[in-house]
Design goal:
It is built from 17 helices and six strands. The strands form two sheets. A four-stranded antiparallel sheet has the order 3-6-5-4. A two-stranded antiparallel ribbon has the order 1-2. Helix 4 crosses helix 9 and helix 8 crosses helix 17.
Length: 385
């Protein structure tokens, strides 16, 4: 796509994103009560905020313009494209969780361990169903009494590692529709892969999490997963499908394409920018309080994102996929479903844990890095001609 073909929003999107991140952090600093009130408007599961209502509203308007453009007859055809779907599944579930573990362990447990603090510890929730006496050891932790409640004291770097693992086993669902849309990918195929990925998360999230975390069996957060997928994917999908059918039946295809879609053009980008302001107003205080910690955690997350994207994009080229299928196939694995990762980390380890902080860093780097990858896709379309 040429620069001249891009809208003003798309052409300077990186600038807008940077300004919105700054604006969000300032809003959280200047009006912390306002940010806290908005952040408290959520649907909770086991005390963990799973679906933020303000974010869900923004995501609806982010996703709806994409969903309504999709010709759902083509979705069925796209679902029969076996190679991109299998490529996505192998990347997401056969490679990504394990490379995330390896990279996070290398950087947090070895290279950056002295910066984090060799003796630094974190107090986290006891694993579900575990009742051990104070002083007992469990894995790398020891049971301690914190304000009359039994908690587990573990090395701080391991807590960060746990958060990175939760990001690694939560590949993107809803947001990849935005990245695929910006990269001019195949929206129908992207939607199919989002649906398959969402169902696979329900099956494998708990199994892989329990295996990689090493804290015993990880209870599958079924309610969190279903609520998140329903709010962030199903609602805009249903609204887009029904409204498209209604408009085509009542106003015709010409009016739909020339009038209705024209009005929706900037909606996705504006909703994305408002979402960023809200996210960083909620988490800005945490980021400002831990600037160097954010850096240590961000390094393996950044390398992981770029590596998985490069692996998927290169494999798509070798498999002979078209650009429209290659771009979303690579990006769905590179991106993370940070909403589920944050909710799970809070449920398992606690709101103030290092694991929860690591998942917040996932939010911090998600949009800038994915926009960088979108730019790479746009500039390399000719590779697939």
């Amino acid at each position: 796509m040429k620069t001249s073909d891009m809208s003003l929003f798309e052409r300077y999107l990186t600038v807008w994103v940077g300004l919105c991140i700054v604006a969000g952090i300032l809003l959280g600093k200047i009006a912390p009560q306002f940010a806290a009130t908005l952040d408290g408007m959520s649907l909770d599961v086991n005390g963990a905020p799973v679906v933020s209502i303000p974010i869900a509203v923004c995501l609806f308007f982010m996703m709806y313009p994409i969903m309504v453009k999709i010709d759902f007859d083509n979705v069925v055809k796209a679902g029969k494209s076996g190679r991109p779907v299998w490529l996505t599944l192998i990347l997401n579930w056969g490679i990504k969780p394990f490379t995330m573990y390896a990279l996070s362990f290398l950087f947090l447990g070895i290279l950056f361990k002295s910066f984090i603090g060799v003796e630094a510890t974190d107090i986290v929730k006891m694993p579900f169903g575990l009742d051990l006496p104070v002083g007992a050891f469990h894995g790398a932790g020891v049971v301690v009494l914190q304000d009359g409640v039994k908690m587990l004291e573990i090395p701080l770097w391991r807590s960060y590692l746990a958060g990175c693992i939760l990001l690694g086993i939560a590949p993107c669902t809803a947001m990849v529709l935005v990245w695929g849309y910006l990269a001019r990918g195949n929206d129908g195929l992207t939607l199919v892969m989002v649906a398959i990925n969402s169902l696979t998360m329900l099956l494998l999230y708990g199994i892989l999490g329990g295996f990689l975390l090493g804290v015993g069996r990880l209870p599958v957060p079924w309610e969190a997963l279903l609520l998140s997928i329903g709010a962030y994917v199903a609602l805009p999908l249903i609204a887009g499908y029904l409204s498209r059918k209604l408009i085509l039946a009542t106003r015709g295809e010409q009016w739909f394409k020339e009038k209705f879609l024209h009005l929706l053009t900037p909606v996705t980008i504006v909703a994305l920018l408002i979402t960023l302001v809200l996210l960083f107003s909620f988490k800005g205080e945490v980021i400002l309080a831990n600037p160097l910690t954010i850096l240590w955690i961000a390094v393996p997350l950044f390398i992981q994102t770029v590596f998985i994207f490069g692996l998927g994009y290169g494999a798509a080229k070798l498999l002979g996929l078209s650009y429209e299928n290659a771009a979303p196939s690579a990006m769905i694995g590179a991106s993370n479903h940070f909403e589920v990762a944050i909710a799970t980390s809070v449920m398992l380890f606690g709101l103030s844990s290092g694991a929860a902080l690591a998942t917040v860093v996932g939010v911090l780097i998600e949009v800038p890095v994915m926009l960088m990858l979108v730019r790479i896709c746009q500039k390399t379309q000719n590779w697939f001609d």
